[in-house]
Amino acid sequence: MAKASNTVTFELRKDTIYLNVKSSQPPRPPRIFDTSKLSEARDRLRSGDVVAIPTETVYGLAASIESEAGLKKIFSLKERPFFDPLIVHVESFKSAQRLTTNWSPLVDFLTRTFWPGPFTVVVPKATQVNSLITSGLETVAIRMPAHPLALEIIKLCGAPLAAPSANKFGRTSPSRAEHVRSEFPGVDLVVIDGGPCEVGVESTVALVSDDTVKIFRPGAITREMIESALKKWSHPVTVETLESEASPGHLKHHYQPKIPLALLAGAWNTNTKSKIERELGASFKNPTELHLDSDPAIAARELYSEMRRLAESGADLLYVIRPQDASGLWSAVLDRLERAASVQT
Ligand code: TXA
Ligand code: MG
Questions:
Q1: Residue 270 Cα, ligand 2 centroid: separation in angstroms?
Q2: pLDDT tens per residue across span 153-206
Q3: Is the pLDDT at 322 greater than 60, yes or no?
Q4: Fewest CB atoms less than 10 Å from the CB: which of 24, 110, 305, 331?
Q5: What angle separates helix 296-311 from helix 330-340, to the nearest 10 degrees?
């Protein structure tokens, strides 16, 4: 099979989104969304409540950056520690620029290349950005999501939205509206349904200064895509991929499904099973494979849905055979698998 390209392009039109993931699969048809709950979402956000919003990556639990009550509610609903900073979602370049003291020419170039899209820039924060958002750091993370409903809700709210993924802290991110509902049962939460997320894994997070790009979290805007874009940039730029410790909140154990996940170096067999059982101190009656598509765009899109589906299917252990390719979008898939895994062989 031809090697799949990782190029992701977005084309936004009124009420529809086309995400053309260049892959072996035919592009999805345009989607039409239910907009009936948007005014309730606006009212709730303006009155300091939270709303679950779709983005092209995963669903977010959003609050207006101007509402301290809303920001606090994000942390309490998610049971998220305050040391884990939030991403601010904007619908215009102007409002992004207001959040920082240094919108450098390089930040401008990269965001104009990749926004709207799954690319989060970490830049020095402006004084008015609430330190609840930044966990007291001097930097703030900003992105413009490529989902028409997300952009519309930010516009309606009249202020940027801080939004982490809409899951309990440390758990698998939601890539469908029903995942969000099952994460917060019994909570009076408006969930805006924007359909299944096209990308499926969280955005690339990168610290961008005048001449360096440090990737904290790999995502669908890959290192290779950033390097390729930089060929058109006038000055030399260093691109680095950093270990998770550089980004508070990007923890070693994260994205975990409800049953243990084993990341395997090779095929499943009885030796592997015994080894995993020894390491986890448990025995498994119904180990089940989470099969990854050979196209990384599809593997990423399906990853969290499959984790959730299989965890509810009666399986007591999930195992995934480690993809051989660690480049491009595979690096994001691998990153999430390594953090979701309870055991690796
Ligand atoms: O795709 C996404 O980014 C989704 C959607 C909803 O936009 N959001 C998301 O948010 O994944 P969350 O909170 O689950 O992950 C945000 C991560 C934090 O855990 C942290 O690692 C990093 O972004 N981050 C935020 N602010 C930062 C900062 N100032 N410096 C370094 N890392 C930061
Ligand atoms: Mg998250």
A1: 34
A2: 999 999 999 999 999 998 999 999 999 999 999 999 999 999 999 999 999 999
A3: yes
A4: 24
A5: 20
- What is the pLDDT at residue 256? 84
Task: Output the CA angle 44-49-53, nearest 5 degrees.
Answer: 75
Q: Which ligand is nearest to the CA of 163?
A: 1
Q: Which amino acid is at 300?
A: A
Cα separation, 251 vs 334, in Å, equals 14
Six-digit token string for 25: 């699969």
How many Å apart are CA 220 and CA 8, to the nearest integer?
Answer: 7
Tell me the residue type at 13.
R
Average pLDDT, the chain: 91
Residue in 30, 22, 17, 29 with CA at minimum distance from that of residue 298: 22
- Residue-wise pLDDT for 48-100, tens only, equals 999 999 999 999 999 999 999 999 999 999 999 898 999 999 999 999 999 99
Q: Which residues line ligand 1 (CB under 6 A)?
A: 55, 57-58, 60, 84-87, 118, 120, 122, 134, 137, 139-141, 145, 163-165, 202-203, 205, 216, 247-250
119: nearest Cα among 128, 110, 127: 110
Q: What is the pTM of this model?
A: 0.92
Prior bond of 116 cis (ω within 30°): yes
- Per residue in 206-251, pLDDT (tens digit) is 999 999 999 999 999 999 999 999 999 999 999 999 876 656 667 7
Largest CA distance in the chain: 59
Question: Tokens at residue 211, please?
Answer: 């001449």
Centre of ligand 2 to C-alpha 92, Å, is: 23
Q: If you ran DSSP here, which 8-state letter would residue 165 be given?
A: B
From the CA of 187, how far away is ligand 1's center (Å)? Answer: 23
